[in-house]
Amino acid sequence: MSEVMTIGEPMVNLIADSPETFLEARTLPRQMAGAEFNVAIGVNRQGHSISYVTQLGDDWQGDLIVDYMDRTGIDTSAIRRVSGAATGFQLKVPGEGAPKVIYFRAGSAASRTTPDIVDGLDFDGVRILHVTGIFSALTEGTYATVDALVDAAKAHGVLVTFDPNPRPTLWPSRQAMIDATNRLAAKCDVFLPGLSEGRMFSGLDDPRAIADHYLDMGVGKVVIKLGDSGSAAFRRDADGARVETVVPSFVVDVVDTVGAGDGFASGVITGLLEGLDDKRLLERANAVGAIQVTSVSDSEDLPTAEQLRRFIAETPRKEVSL
């Protein structure tokens, strides 16, 4: 089995060739999208193996996704194909920083995933399970599936990383999202919120207070993304004292911010696999996130290990503080 496992909803991504509206687009080049898919590409590009757990329709979109993953080297053996429900896709119009995106995923095959997909999964060789708040939010069934997968991973001694990646419109209420996210966070080993997300989920303002909130829950490491300026990692030492590491990001020209957090997560995951200390881990994660925002694609330009090494060596840094 792969070193890393993830679960999510991969989608076909149709990108308009016009920065205005879909009506003005003359072509819609096909790429792939989905937060966990982006992470999988990032992990794979950095030289590590990853398997993808999901449910796809028995349709052309599903065929495209499986074929792309197979050609890329992502393990598709845990993907279940079903009839009677379509594979989700999205339309994207590039813009300044944040693009316009229209989703076609309601009632998708992935949204109908149930916990029995966890039965029989092979955890042999898996070191990290990565989950997000997006797939968890699709339906009660997908939340239950993620919850069951986290429990199974923990039972097999697998480290669990969790990016909350909140999507408020997918939840019945803001409070339901907060409560469900915190229940999952308490089960995980590494929690990866953005600063605004950490404030929302914890009800606290200061990054150190947010970190303490989750460390006190039993989370082993809290990694907070500090916008485009950098990131911070928090953990407890053997005496229970908080240890913090703050690392600046890189100076780049921003084209499209979609996928930056996913790229960041892939840097954290591969850094954990390689045993990097917190400073080097954050440096890598910041670098992957910075590279991602220089491209209109959600994942096509995520770096290889060598590209990442050169970027870190050659790119100027910003200033950052808590």
From TrEMBL:
Keywords: Kinase, Transferase. Residues 1-304 form the Carbohydrate kinase PfkB domain. Pfam families: PfkB. This is Sugar kinase. The lineage of its organism: Bacteria, Bacillati, Actinomycetota, Actinomycetes, Bifidobacteriales. GO terms for molecular function: kinase activity. PANTHER family: 2-DEHYDRO-3-DEOXYGLUCONOKINASE_2-DEHYDRO-3-DEOXYGALACTONOKINASE, SUGAR KINASE. InterPro entries: Carb_kinase_PfkB-like, Carboh/pur_kinase_PfkB_CS, PfkB_dom. It comes from Bifidobacterium phasiani. The keyword Transferase applies. The keyword Transferase applies. Belongs to the carbohydrate kinase PfkB family.
